[in-house]
From TrEMBL:
Residues 588-714 form the Aconitase A/isopropylmalate dehydratase small subunit swivel domain. Transmembrane segments: none annotated. NCBIfam families: aconitase_mito, PRK07229.1. It is an enzyme of class 4 (lyase). This is Aconitate hydratase, mitochondrial. Binds 1 [4Fe-4S] cluster per subunit.
Length: 790
């Protein structure tokens, strides 16, 4: 079979000024000539209507611009596409972390293709548990997860995928250092994939089935996002950091305010930020529900590309920018909304607990903590992670540590540091920063996600305690039980600088910007504002070769990918059954109360080890959800009144051939790109999820697995339905026959347990392709059908 990558290259003569790059960088530079050729078609269709940067990059990746604009032309086509039409896109690259890569590769294997159609990488960062430091933690984690790591490595060898093994670093930091580039379009199986937007890329978090689209050259579908302009004025100074920009934005937009938008940053304040600072901001754009975030190409990007061995890519980007007006928005481009942030007035903020959009200024935190009855003793401080482990972050932090050490101070609470990559770790070690950390009591964890995603073997607080405790972190997400499995741990998100200052006090009443700490000599010590370096003066250190993969591996069909039928970690997939052509008739198993994130739907932590085994991981389905009718967590009741845990009743009803439906409130599926939050409900017999509103990634994941995601046309109908009621679609067949183009509504017949019936209206967003997924039983089933019929 011909390799999927063996495709003749077009001659884009009109863009010949784009310089060539050396062979080792060819798979990493965006195909600028091809993208500009596509963009020319778009300009012709829209009569050269001004475009935002986000639109330029998205539309230049259209598989067929004429089809995406419906065959029409002019301003009307351009105006009508945002937030309404589906785009079919051809991404340049795919990146997957080890937890989500398992299911993605199990799905990819069913296609029968010899290799991936675009450069793809796997990063082993989620399965490494943090506790005592890399020397202790990494060997233990490698041994505990050997079967999974071996599976992913053999998949990589067979299909020509770059394999970054355990200990190499966190996916988003490695992507920034190696693969992200201005104008690139990338899909990543992690919700914080937009981190790469800090280097001018369109990088979107998706589920594994979406990644398989790109890996198989199947056009990837996305509803054209609206574009929100974030205008930055002024300049950061003193204690304020890039993290404060996005935590402030989260406080203004809330966890739903960015849904359906790309956040595009512009304004004079942009040029005062470092590339890694921009990455921090884009990383946490996921917390407001944004499709992705990005910054325009500028000098900070040039400096970072050069520092990471990619000056040739910077040279190509310079030509694309200066000769062809790519990589920046057009003058007079229009945003759907604009939010302005004055960096000169920005104050450090602390966000939490239990949600990343509850934002409190550091000057108000002490008073607010008393008012809200938050713990006054901070128990642990943690810095690093994919969000804040850059050299700039760590150099500013070590300045504070040195100030405290010079005054004779030591941390009063445990202090953990997580480097983002081997390159960062090695550079910090060479420059003496790592030694300063350890000499001052820090535990340096391995180059992996660790506590940020729940891989923390915490032993200072009992896991079953009912007492609340407070941790300060520079992480990006803080849902209940996320970090240590304890629902009573309050995680307050802030900059690494504020976290570091707080470990020397351990007191919620301490404001490091103005308050003092008494030294052992009885003197008053006050921190000075931290200072650091954007990039290391002596360049980045490569580090240990064992943590670096072959740069551009070739597929090897002789490699055997083994999955033992007796394994409790990996399980080959059985295709979901196709739609039978009939209306769906379901029984309400659960009404969910309040926030229901993907952590609630498919918990991480100890469950991460089952990511490759659909049956086993499905035992955690919705165990974090609160029953709206009883306020109980992970408790539902059968039709005879007998109580079960939620997955237990799902399994029972599956065995009884009783399809079920779950009802929920707003932003259902908020959080990570966790595909299992859609796979497990489908596997356990679910057919419909009916909510007040969805988070973008989760709604797409449900569609990919053949489920029917619906929203209430009238939110008041939520209160009219109870568990045990029967909900049956009325005109589903008509919707399918019209390929989803039926006005976007479905009638649903509700039959109460007393026999009363009535009709409610529900909304859907199913496209023609998504209808095909539904009919086939899943997107993978549909892709397989297309391959077999080709």
């Amino acid at each position: 079979m011909l390799s999927a990558r063996a495709v003749a290259r077009r001659n884009f003569a009109s863009f010949s000024k784009i310089p060539k790059v050396s062979r080792d960088l060819q798979s990493r530079v965006p195909p600028y000539a091809k993208l500009l050729t596509n963009l020319e078609k778009v300009h012709k269709i829209t009569n050269n209507e001004p475009l935002t940067l986000a639109e330029k990059i998205l539309y230049s990746h259209l598989t067929n611009p004429e089809e995406s604009f419906g065959g029409s032309s002019g301003v009307s086509a351009f105006r009508d596409i945002r937030g309404k039409e589906y785009l079919k896109l051809s991404p340049d690259r795919v990146a997957m972390q080890d937890a989500s890569a398992q299911m993605a590769m199990l799905q990819f294997m069913t296609t029968g293709l010899p290799d991936t159609s675009v450069p793809t990488s796997i990063h082993c960062d989620h399965l490494v548990v943090g506790k005592n430091g890399e020397e202790y933690d990494l060997p233990k984690s490698k041994d505990a997860n050997k079967e999974v790591f071996d599976f992913l490595e053999s998949c990589s060898q067979r299909y020509g995928i770059t394999f970054w093994g355990p200990g190499s670093g966190i996916i988003h930091q490695i992507v920034l250092e190696n693969y992200s580039a201005p104008g690139l379009m990338m899909l990543g199986t992690d919700s914080h994939t937009p981190n790469a937007g800090g280097l001018g890329a369109i990088a979107i978090g998706v589920g594994g089935a979406d990644a398989v689209d790109a890996m198989t050259a199947t056009p990837w579908e996305l509803k054209a996002p609206k574009v929100m302009g974030i205008k930055l004025t002024g300049k950061l100074s003193g204690w304020s950091a890039p993290k404060d920009i996005i935590t402030t934005i989260a406080g203004k937009l809330t966890v739903r305010g960015g849904t359906g938008y790309i956040l595009e940053y512009f304004g004079e304040g942009v040029d005062s930020l470092s590339c890694t600072g921009m990455a921090t901001i884009c990383n946490m754009g996921a917390e407001v529900g944004a499709t992705t975030s990005l910054f325009p190409y500028n000098d900070a990007h040039r400096r970072y590309l050069a520092a990471t061995g990619r000056k040739q890519i910077a040279n190509a980007a310079d030509v694309a920018l200066n000769e062809y007006n790519f990589l920046r928005s057009d003058k007079y481009a229009q945003y759907d909304d604009v939010l302005e942030i004055n960096l000169s007035e920005l104050e450090p903020t602390v966000n939490g607990p239990f949600t990343p959009d509850l934002s409190t200024k550091i000057s108000e935190y002490a008073e607010t903590s008393l008012k809200e009855n938050w713990p006054q003793n901070i128990s642990v401080g943690l810095i690093g992670s994919c969000t804040n482990s850059s050299y700039q972050d760590m150099s500013r932090v070590v300045d504070l540590v040195n100030q405290a050490a010079k005054a004779g101070l030591k941390p009063k609470i445990p202090f953990f540091v997580t480097p983002g990559s081997e390159q960062i770790r090695a550079t910090l070690e060479r420059d003496g920063i790592m030694k300063t950390f350890t000499d001052n009591g820090a535990i340096v964890l391995g180059n992996a996600c660790g506590p940020c995603i729940g891989q923390w073997d915490r032993d200072d607080v009992p896991k079953d305690t009912k007492q609340t405790n407070s941790i300060f972190t520079s992480f990006n997400r803080n849902f209940r039980a996320r970090n240590d499995g304890n629902r009573n741990t309050m995680n307050f998100l802030t900059s690494p600088e504020i976290v570091t200052a707080m470990i020397y006090s351990g007191d919620a009443q301490f404001n490091p910007l103005k308050d003092s700490i008494t030294t052992p000599e009885g003197k008053k010590f006050t921190f000075k504002a931290p200072k650091g370096e954007e990039l290391p003066q002596n360049g980045f250190e490569h580090g240990r070769d064992v943590f670096y993969p072959e740069a551009d591996p070739k597929a090897n069909a002789q490699v055997e990918v083994k999955v033992s039928p007796d394994s409790d970690r990996l399980q080959l997939l059985e295709p979901f059954k196709p739609w039978n052509g009939k209306e769906l008739k379901t029984t309400v198993l659960l009404k969910v109360k309040g926030k229901c994130t993907t952590d609630h739907i498919s918990a991480a932590g100890v469950w991460l080890k089952y990511k490759g085994h659909l049956e086993n991981i499905s035992y955690n389905t919705l165990i974090g959800a609160q029953n709206y009718e009883t306020d109980e967590v992970n408790k539902v009741y059968d039709l005879d009144g007998k109580g079960y845990d939620i997955p237990g009743l799902m399994m029972k009803w599956k065995d009884e051939h009783r399809p079920w439906i779950v009802l929920a409130e707003h932003n259902y599926g908020e959080g990570s790109a966790r595909e299992h939050a859609a796979l497990s409900p489908r596997y356990l017999g679910g057919e419909i999820i009916l909510v007040k509103s969805f988070a973008r990634i989760h709604e797409t994941n449900l569609k990919k697995q053949g489920m029917l995601p619906l929203t209430f046309a009238d939110e008041a109908d939520f209160d009219k339905i109870a568990s045990g009621d029967v909900l049956e679609t009325v005109n589903l067949a008509d919707m399918v026959a019209k390929n989803g183009d039926n006005g976007g509504e479905l009638d649903v017949k509700v039959t109460k347990r007393n026999g009363e019936t009535f009709i409610i209206k529900a909304k859907h967003t199913m496209s023609k392709d998504q209808i095909n997924f539904f009919k086939a039983g899943s997107a993978i089933n549909y892709i397989g059908e297309q391959r077999r019929n080709a």
